[in-house]
Amino acid sequence: MPTNPPDAGAWATRQIRNTLGLAAWTVAWVASLALAAFGPGNLWDNEPAPTLIAIAVSVLVGIGMLFANKRNLQGLDELQRTIQLQAMAWSLGAGLVGGTAWTLFDRHDLVAFEAEIGHLIALMAVVYLAGSVAGVLRYR
Amino acid sequence: MKNRLKVLRAERDWTQADLAQALEVSRQTVNALETGKYDPSLPLAFRLARLFGRPIEEIFQDEAEG
Asked: Taking CB atoms and an 8 Å cutoff, what residues of chain B touch A139?
């Protein structure tokens, strides 16, 4: 016999709000990072004071982003958390192994350009994204 | 681990989205539970048992027991 499903809390709404919050913090952090990276040369003629302020703002916004990420992870259900954990494990492993190897390539002049932190971030981001997609597909 | 979630849900004429909303999980999680791709934690299993008004062992069966 059909039964009405029980009323649920606003879990889905809360999850959407957490995701949008994380997206907003991430955009703000990237913008603050761009300001701190390109502002000195393009906007304030390499004055140290505004550069220090821009870096401090970027760090503060970055801390806000970390808390938004933590809140987002805590708001996920257990399968989503499992998928995220596996993706983060792959990302961390790739960052550690790939980053170390990349530095060695650079140190022994086996690559034409210098190893930069941006390469490591890009590697970890790509692996994290691939791990997340693989997890979603695995449990589909 | 086998389970009777799909049958119990169908008896109540609920969609996967209905069940997901009641459990406060995603629809993907309900689907993964029903297809046996994901085994729930004990707290989620107890929530399912309360929701369907059945003991856990009536919902989940260990495949090793046959």
From this structure: 28-29, 32, 37-38
CB pair distance less than 8 Å for B14 and A5: yes
DSSP class of residue B3 equals E
ipTM of the complex: 0.91
Angle between helices A117-138 and A78-107 (to 10 degrees): 150
Q: What is the rounded average pLDDT for all residues in chain B?
A: 94
- Report CA dihedral (A89, A95, A98, A100) to the nearest 10 degrees: -120
Residues of chain A with pLDDT below 50 are 1
Domain ranges, ordered by start, for chain B: 2-57
Could you report the per-residue pLDDT of A62-76, keeping only the tens digit for each? 999 999 999 999 999
Domain B2-57 class in CATH: mainly alpha
**Residue of B13, B22, B29 lying closest to A77 (CB–CB):** B29
> Where are the alpha helices (H) located in chain B, listed in sequence order?
5-11, 16-23, 27-34, 42-52, 56-59
Query: CA-based angle A69:A91:A137, to the nearest 5?
Result: 85
Nearest Cα residue in chain A from B14: A5
Query: What is the pLDDT, as a whole number, of residue B63?
Result: 80
The two structure tokens encoding residue A2: 């059909």
- Of the candidates B4, B46, B36, B2, the one whose C-alpha atom is nearest the C-alpha of residue A79 is B36
Predicted TM-score (pTM) of the model is 0.85
